[in-house]
Amino acid sequence: MKNKIFRNSISTFILLFTIIGFSQTKSSNTVSLDVFYNKIQAEKNPQIIDARGAEEFALNHILGAVNFNLESKDYAEKIAKLDKSKPVFTYSIGAGRSVWLADDLLKKGFKEAYSLEGGIANWIGSGKPFFANSKSKLTLTEYNKIIADNKTVLVDIGSVYCGACKKVKPVLETIKAQYGTKLKVVEIDLEDNTQVIADLKTIKVFPTLIVYQNGKIILKKEGFENLKNDVDVALASK
């Protein structure tokens, strides 16, 4: 019995070690925006892959990017068109599909493959060149007017394709119900307001939530963890 327990413990340890090691290998291919951008600039014809879905890609993407991911039916054909001796730059909505893609490329013998930390949010949110198939519904001037015309404003910036962003919505409803007209809530999605997100030049990841009071930022939060509590604390301290 003891030997069986011991063997099970060893098996569990090996499994955890393998998972941790695999995660570290994948995450080591993820680089900051500055590194990603500078490496792209150093290439004459950079190989940039948007690892999101076709619908997402059609709405907005990094200039010069092509679109496919591990689930694409023509994945092998797309890979065959790439130069294994040159770097490949991947990105997605965050750092999920792009990390898996970069990892697979390295396994297939590519010399270098990098995933962008923060994904498309980081790229567009920092004002880097991009394509969008429509104009933003909200301009930066209009955004600034909302901030100026309301004492307290909560801005939720994300994407309809972002899983974490969807988890913010029910929390926002609770916050709206609690504060009512005392708090102006503005929801900005990448798909409808690409340019204003680029113009803000402060977004690194989706979701990002910003609370303004009297025109000044009193809370900037990335992610939805403890969102309501953080908003309550920020507003209570002012």
Q: What does this entry look like structurally?
A:
There is one protein chain. Helices cover 46% and strands 20% of the residues. The protein contains ten helices and eleven strands. Strand 5, helix 5 (97-107) and strand 6 (113-116) form a beta-alpha-beta unit. The protein is elongated. It starts with a helix and ends with a helix.
Features:
single chain, 238 residues, alpha/beta, five-stranded parallel sheet, four-stranded mixed sheet, 10 helices, 11 strands, elongated, disordered N terminus
List the topology elements.
Layout: H1 2-27, E1 30-31, H2 33-41, E2 47-50, H3 54-59, E3 60-62, E4 66-67, H4 75-80, E5 88-91, H5 97-107, E6 113-116, H6 119-125, E7 130-132, H7 140-149, E8 152-158, H8 163-179, E9 184-189, H9 194-200, E10 208-213, E11 216-222, H10 227-236
Parallel strand pairs: 1-6, 2-4, 2-5, 5-6, 8-9
Antiparallel strand pairs: 3-7, 8-10, 10-11
DSSP helical segment count: 10
Report the major sheet: 5 strands, parallel
What is the radius of gyration?
A: 21 Å
Instruction: Give the end-to-end Cα distance, rounded to a whole number of Å.
Output: 62 Å
Sum up the overall morphology in one term: elongated
Low-confidence stretches: 2-26
Number of strands: 11
* Class by alpha and beta content: alpha/beta
Give the fraction of residues assigned to helices.
40-55%
Along the chain, the helix and strand elements come as: HEHEHEEHEHEHEHEHEHEEH
Compute the average pLDDT.
Answer: 89
In spatial order, strands of the major sheet run 1-6-5-2-4
Q: Which percent band covers the strand fraction?
A: 15-25%
